[in-house]
C-alpha cells in the first residue's frame, strides 16, 4: 500500500499558517494517485484553497467507509474539487459543483488530476444553493458530500433546501467541518429537524468532524 498522506507534503516545511494556502500547488496522495491541486487564493479566495475538512473527508472516503464503486455522488461547494476527485478515483460517478465564478478553476483541477478513462465519471456543474435546483433531478444521488460548507449563516436555509432536494430516501449526506462557532451547531440542529444526524469521524489533529445525515423515514406503522 502506498503511504497515506494525511497532510500536504509541504506543510511540515512551511510551518502552519497561511503560507500553505498561498502555495500555487498543494500535493496529496490518495487512491494510489498523486493529486496536485492548483490554488488561487489571490483570485478566488476561500473557494480556491484546499481546506483541512476536504483532506479529512477524502481520507475518510479512502478508508472505505462508504461503498463508492458505481455510486452516484454530488459534491457541494467543491472549491478546488479535491473530495470529488478522490471520490471519482475510488469509483464513484461524481457531479462536482460550485458557484459560477469558481467553475473554470474547478474544471482545470479536475481535468489535471483524473486520467482520461476516469474523466467521464466526473462532471463539473454549476450549483448555487437554493437556485437552479430544477436542473438536478430530485433525490438522484446516493451520496452528497460537503467539506467546510457550513460557514455563512445567510446560506443555511438555501443549503438545507438544496440538501432536501438532492437527497432521496436512501441517500447519505457526509459533511466535514470544524465546529468553530455557535452557528455551526445551529446548522447541525436545523439539519437534525429534517434528517437523522450522527457523528461518524473526528480527526483530533485537524479538529475536523464528519457528520452523516439521512432522511428521516416517516413511521409507516402509525
Automatic annotation (TrEMBL):
S-adenosyl-L-methionine in keyword set: yes
Record Gene3D superfamilies: Vaccinia Virus protein VP39
Pfam family, one: Methyltransf_16
Organism domain of life: Eukaryota
Principal cellular location given in the protein's record: cytoplasm
GO biological process, one term: methylation
Catalytic activity from the UniProt record: L-lysyl-[protein] + 3 S-adenosyl-L-methionine = N(6),N(6),N(6)-trimethyl-L-lysyl-[protein] + 3 S-adenosyl-L-homocysteine + 3 H(+)
GO MF annotation terms: methyltransferase activity
Cellular compartments annotated: Cytoplasm
Methyltransferase keyword on record: yes
Keywords (A to Z) from UniProt: Cytoplasm, Methyltransferase, S-adenosyl-L-methionine, Transferase
Family, similarity comment: Belongs to the methyltransferase superfamily. METTL21 family.
Protein name as it appears in the record: Protein N-lysine methyltransferase METTL21A
Species this protein is from: Echinops telfairi
Amino acid at each position: 500500500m502506498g503511504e497515506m498522506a494525511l497532510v500536504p507534503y509541504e506543510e511540515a516545511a512551511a510551518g502552519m499558517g497561511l503560507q500553505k494556502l498561498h502555495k500555487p500547488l498543494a500535493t496529496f496522495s490518495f487512491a494510489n494517485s498523486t493529486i496536485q491541486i492548483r490554488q488561487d487564493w489571490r483570485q478566488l479566495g476561500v473557494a480556491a484553497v484546499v481546506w483541512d475538512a476536504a483532506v479529512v473527508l477524502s481520507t475518510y472516503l479512502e478508508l472505505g467507509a462508504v461503498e463508492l464503486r458505481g455510486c452516484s455522488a454530488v459534491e457541494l461547494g467543491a472549491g478546488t474539487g479535491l473530495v470529488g476527485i478522490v471520490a471519482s478515483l475510488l469509483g464513484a460517478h461524481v457531479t462536482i459543483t460550485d458557484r459560477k465564478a469558481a467553475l473554470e478553476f474547478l474544471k482545470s483541477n479536475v481535468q489535471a488530476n483524473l486520467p482520461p478513462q476516469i474523466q467521464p465519471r466526473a462532471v463539473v456543474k454549476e450549483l448555487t444553493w437554493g437556485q437552479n435546483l430544477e436542473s438536478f433531478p430530485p433525490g438522484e444521488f446516493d451520496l452528497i458530500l460537503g467539506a467546510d460548507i457550513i460557514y455563512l449563516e445567510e446560506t443555511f436555509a438555501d443549503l438545507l433546501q438544496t440538501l432536501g432536494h438532492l437527497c432521496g430516501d436512501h441517500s447519505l449526506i457526509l459533511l466535514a467541518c470544524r465546529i468553530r462557532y455557535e452557528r455551526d451547531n445551529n446548522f447541525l440542529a436545523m439539519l437534525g429537524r429534517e434528517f437523522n444526524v450522527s457523528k461518524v469521524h473526528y480527526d483530533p489533529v485537524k479538529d475536523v468532524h464528519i457528520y452523516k445525515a439521512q432522511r428521516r423515514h416517516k413511521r409507516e406503522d402509525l
